[in-house]
Design goal:
binds zinc ion; Neutral endopeptidase, domain 2; three-stranded mixed sheet; 53% helix; four-stranded mixed sheet
């Protein structure tokens, strides 16, 4: 029975979710509700109640790291102190930046600034090397932009202009709190905008970033240093690593580095410093007075369509749950996630991997040797389910002085985290690290370690429940599991081998056949009209391939169930993608997100599979019909 007048054969998403969507209200402090978002909100409510009890001393946790998490939580709530101190806690670092007037002065302090969280003309990080997943590499890229993507800077992009006006207005108000004179305030803002505009001409677009295997561009330190001058990259690396400084860097965004002087040069030096001053102030606002915190969120509220900031208690929980992510995820998992459910989902993952192997064997476009390598990759996928058994030592080192201001505490914590990340350069990759904490409603595949992570928080209704039918669970978490596994074989993941190394394990003709199918998937989504804009088939192709694979493998399992209920399968598939969102947020996702809009994820993929047509008797007369020759099933 349909919940609305819409026929399921015409619009699965609306037929299943329409009634709910009609009445759903997006909370003022969110940009979306439904599916993932509703679950996330539920987790947040549960955890907020626990933190309220921790802070009141009515409850405690056995995890030693929670002591500092609670202390930090209380610091956010201490508005008396925050409001009294106002902008003062951040002033020393702003003054330090203001005093830097030459590249030589910047170079003397650059390593320290990096640890303090001040943005440099290059972003730097340490992460697993794409070509040798056993070792870590030092990676560099250009600076972040103010707007969400380079495309927003196009001459005819009105949205970009409006957003920059909102940002400028916010910054103007913030700068009035600083000791800068009025003339300086105007100059700093103009310079920051000028710097950002120059950067926008050099850095990668979101579409370019979406092909992440192209990030692997090793360059000698000498070469990078040549491009980066007057920034002294070599001095910085020596300050950070002494005589163990790397001699090769991995350049994620080659154009930004090679043409760095287009935005950072001796002549333009003050543009950078004034940009860094404003970015540092903006980042600090969340930890300053309530007034500054609210002001500092103006731009992101506009960007995402959020009507109001979360109440103070929620802000406190959100800040702490991001800062102490792993211990809080472990606490959540241990407290709210059952072992029976964990074992059941692990079994489901294993079953899906085994079925994936069978499908690889039956695959009709790969040569036998390529199939064998694909099956090898499937055999070595690691499963990270729920939450980690052990909390990594770094989370116990996240301590601060109890007398610190909120800002000072956050700054020390950020420095400890950054130092820890940079130190990884000298150690082998720890493949037991988790990319997502237990309380996060999400899942992921890591191509560098060939593993999949399913945090405890996503293992709930509608994705998964012991009480749901097997068919419903397969249409929910099953398809998500299949989706994550498929990322091992999407247009990016396919470039990595079973060890997580960029390594071509394909026969040329097999890869060409795969690319032809990939092109079909690009075309299936390219240009679909959505909220006044158009879907980019290229930007979303890896996620669409993953959805396609996830549905293919779980439908295969459905065939083996004695009580398979295909209607329940497809309905739950549509239910997990249910989302009501603010228009601003819809537009933001449409231009930047590598996932297709939720309604399309729900409605496009089923039509590629015969089971959809059989389950609901879908024919050419129905909206959710496509010709058999246009149906795509890649994996
Ligand atoms: Zn994905």
């Amino acid at each position: 029975m349909n919940e609305t007048n819409v026929r399921i054969q015409d619009d699965l998403y609306e037929a299943v979710n329409g009634e709910w969507l009609k009445n759903a209200v997006i909370p003022d402090d969110r940009s979306t509700i439904g599916g993932f978002s509703t679950l996330d909100q539920d987790v947040e409510q549960i955890m907020m109640a626990d933190f309220r009890a921790f802070a009141a001393g009515e409850k405690s946790s056995d995890l030693p790291q929670m002591k500092y998490a609670v202390a930090l939580y209380k610091k956010v709530l201490d508005t008396e102190r925050r409001n009294r101190e106002g902008i003062r806690p951040v002033l020393p670092i702003l003054e330090q930046l203001r005093a830097i007037t030459t590249p030589a002065q910047l170079n003397q302090q650059a390593a320290k600034l990096l640890l303090t969280g001040v943005p440099l003309p290059l972003q730097m990080d340490v992460t697993a090397d794409m070509q040798n997943a056993e070792k870590n590499s030092f990676v560099v890229a250009g600076p972040d932009l103010i707007l969400p993507d380079t495309t927003y800077y196009a001459e005819d992009n009105q949205q970009g202009k409006q957003l920059l006006a909102v940002w400028s207005d916010m910054v103007t108000k913030l700068l009035a709190y600083t000791p800068l004179t009025e003339a300086e305030q105007k100059q700093y803002l103009a310079d920051a905008l000028a710097f950002d505009a120059l950067v926008s001409k050099k850095v990668k677009s979101q579409l370019e970033w979406s092909e992440y295997y192209k990030c692997h561009n090793p360059m000698s330190v000498d070469e990078v240093a040549g491009y980066a001058s007057p920034l002294d990259v070599k001095l910085m690396l020596t300050e950070l690593y002494g005589d163990r400084a790397p001699d090769t860097l991995i350049v994620y965004d080659p154009k930004a580095v090679k043409e760095m002087n287009g935005y950072f040069s001796r002549e333009n030096f003050s543009l950078y410093i004034h940009w860094a001053y404003i970015r540092t102030l903006l980042k600090a606002t969340a930890c300053l007075s309530e007034e500054l915190a609210a002001l500092g969120k103006t731009y992101s509220r506009t960007l995402t369509g959020v009507a109001a900031d979360p109440v103070l208690e929620k802000q406190a929980y959100q800040l702490v749950s991001a800062t102490y992510a792993e211990p809080i995820g472990v606490y959540y998992g241990q407290t709210y996630f059952g072992e029976a459910a964990k074992q059941d989902v692990v079994d489901m993952v294993k079953k899906i991997i085994e079925t994936y192997k069978l499908r690889m064997q039956k695959n009709d476009f790969l040569a036998e040797e390529t199939k064998a390598k694909a099956i090898q990759k499937l055999s070595t996928i690691e499963i990270k389910m729920g939450y980690p058994d052990e909390i990594k030592p770094i989370w116990s080192r996240l301590v601060f002085d109890e007398n610190d201001s909120l800002f000072a505490a956050m700054r020390s914590l950020a420095a400890i985290r950054t130092r820890d990340r940079l130190d990884k350069l000298l150690k082998p990759v720890d493949r037991t690290e988790w990319l997502m904490p237990g309380h996060m409603v999400n899942a992921c595949y890591n191509p560098s370690s060939n593993d999949i992570t399913f945090p405890a928080a996503i293992l709930q209704k509608p994705f998964y429940a012991l009480a749901q039918s097997h068919s419903e669970n397969l249409g929910g978490i099953g398809a998500v599991i299949g989706h994550e596994i498929s990322h091992a074989f999407d247009n990016n993941g396919a470039k990595f081998d079973e060890h997580g190394n960029l390594n071509n394990w394909w026969k040329d003709e097999d890869f060409q056949a795969f690319q032809a199918l990939t092109k079909g998937m690009v075309e299936q989504f390219e240009g679909i009209e959505f909220h006044g804009g158009k879907v980019s088939g290229e930007l979303t192709v890896s996620e669409n391939i993953a959805d396609n694979g996830g549905m293919g493998v779980t439908l295969e399992i459905m065939h083996t169930l004695p009580d398979a209920d295909y209607r329940a399968y497809f309905k739950n598939w549509a239910r997990v993608w249910c989302m009501k969102a603010k228009e601003e947020y819809i537009q933001l996702l449409l231009s930047c997100d590598v996932h297709s809009p939720n309604v399309l994820r729900a409605n496009m993929m089923p039509r590629n599979f015969n089971e959809w047509y059989e389950a609901f008797g879908v024919t050419e007369q129905d909206q959710m019909y496509i010709d058999p020759e246009k149906r795509i099933s890649i994996w």
